[in-house]
Amino acid sequence: MMRMVRSLAATAVLAALPALAQVAPDPAKTAEVAAGRVAEARASWWGFNPEDATASLQAAINSKAPKLIVDNLGKPWVVEPITLVSDQEIVFEDGVEVVAKAGAFKGTNDSLFRADNCRNITLRGTNATLRMRRADYDDPAQYKRAEWRHSLSFRSCSNIKVYGLTLLESGGDGIYLGTATRGVTNKDIHIKDVVCDRHYRQGISVITAENLLIENTIMRGTAGTAPEAGIDFEPNHPEERLVNCVMRNCRSEDNDGCGFVFYLTPMRFVSEPLSIRLEKCVATGNRNAAFGFHTGATGDLSVDGTVEVSESVFSSDNAPALSVSKPANRSRLVLTDCQFNATGADAKSSAPIVVRSGQHADESVGGVEFVRCLVRDAQVRRPIAYVDGSGGTPVKDLIGTLALEQAGKASQLALTPELLAEWFPVNAMKQYTRLSLKDLALRPAAPGAAAASYAFGHAVVRVAGTYLLYATAGDTVALEASFMQVGKYQADSAPITITAPDGTVVAEAKAAFLADTTVTFTAPVTGAYRVLAQPRQNRLAFKSSTHPLCLLQEGSVPIRLISSAGPFYFWIPKGTREFGIRVAGEGLGEAIRAALLDAEGNVLQEADNVVASHQFDVVLPAPSAGAVGCLKLDKPSTITWEDHYVDLRGVLPLLAPSPEALIIPAE
């Protein structure tokens, strides 16, 4: 049974139990346990205080009794964080509740039950509940925001069994399978008949596991901080493993993120190949993709292996039922007897199945086989859409036959190379050489300009932003950084590092979270200084600068922005005849509007609701004498506006807030 409902008889028995105020420890019985003469013990032998039972329960666990029964005393076991030990079975009696103590769990990694480098642990219960206080942890007035206050945290553990428990409202994941010792994976994990309900980050997170079996488990109602999935397979390092991981008869429903998500980008070709299987699983009511699979954009770096999904149903309203982003030659995905349902007649998703290429994709995307799969769609449209984020990456090795039911009409569709070529012609964007600043002498475009022209508050970077700043030896330089929040991501500060033209670090600072911070330094030499700001998952902008300041695109990595509207100026070097400017949103859900302007502000080209890469191609009537160009970014008209990218090709790799702020070649 996937849902465990207390019987009327059991409810009557529990109602008849007296609600005990307090239980005194039984020294005789605990001594028997300590002497090793008792194989089965009851937690109440170490006492019970209904206001705070932490000491009693922790002492009972620390006794290392082979089998420990957490008895139903008519009131919850109210506890602070509990540490588990090896070689122990803990049985939670019918109706037992273990509840996180109010006002406790102040540590950002405080979990209800935690085991590091342990083995042979069983947690078992029927109608037993482990409850935390998600709403409390989401209140910044009470708690430092974090996403790691899990119900059950197992790190680098082996032979772990979790059966029959209901896990409610943690400040992180219902179950977390991570690492305590880097390189030591969790092995031989069995999770069965568990309900993970209303957790803050994930129902279940699998960072690393070998021989993992999850059966008859429900993951629902996740909401709080991204990814907000039912279950997320998300390794952090290449040495972590997802080997022989099986999910059977599991449901992921009504989560604010994806139902089942595999974010495998941190793994690499040197990682142990994937071996994952889903059988008879269901995803429904999730706000993002019902099933998302992402291994990274670069074929020679992505993890290899096989993921098999059979007899499973993935339904979504305004998002894809299946979203895939991976090289065709890595991590094969085989879907057998599966069903993909797009349930919304006005769904925002472009198709029930979406294939994507990332910003840096350099291999064909695909490698998906459909065997006797059914696509049900409330609309008549192509069942598969392609988002070409890289601009020119082909789709390859999407094979099989799909049965279609679209707006009530049935048909069959064979996926052939000819059909893929017709549906997804290669968007062969013209290639322009990216210019480098290496060995290039630079100068400010307008020496002595007013400091107001250097303010770059409308350029908001996410994850990391590199800037170029020009100063003269002896100048006092001041930058005002504004460190802002994205969603519910938390931080203490964002590091800012400033290096001189010779690479020497001349200043290091930390921008305070949700505040403005002034960074100052004295320029030791004349030239261009690099400023690296790292807001990570949040965002940062330089509201003011005393000196010319430009965003710098380094190499092939586009400039990453978030909700950045306004003009961005660039320099067209002397002798240039043609160049290209690429803009892109963040997949189907996030777009950008952009326009290319001439020096007088006239719109030359424009594009709206750009999700995949769009390139503005410019051919000049005569070689440039050295000129200013302008890219204007704005909120898209219909699609969500958040993350977006700019890729400069054939022009100087700098964006400035004004023509006066540009740094240009010293010709």
Summarize the structure.
The chain folds into three domains: 1-257, Single-stranded right-handed beta-helix, Pectin lyase-like (Pectate Lyase C-like, 3 Solenoid); 297-428, no CATH class; 442-665, Jelly Rolls, CATH 2.60.120.
Keywords:
Jelly Rolls, 14-stranded parallel barrel, globular, 667 residues, 3 domains, 51 strands, disordered N terminus, 11-stranded parallel sheet
The profile of the biggest β sheet is: 14 strands, parallel, barrel
Distance between the termini: 77 Å
> Which structural class do you get from the secondary structure elements?
mainly beta
What is the CATH domain class of the largest domain? Mainly Beta
CATH topology of the largest domain: Pectate Lyase C-like
Q: How many structural domains in the coordinates?
A: 3
Spans where pLDDT lies below 50 across 5 or more residues = 1-18
Average pLDDT, to the nearest integer? 91
For the largest beta sheet, what order do the strands appear in spatially?
10-12-15-18-21-24-27-30-28-25-22-19-16-13
Helix content: under 10%
CATH superfamily assignment of the largest domain? Single-stranded right-handed beta-helix, Pectin lyase-like
- What is the approximate shape? globular
CATH architecture verdict of the largest domain: 3 Solenoid
The radius of gyration is 29 Å
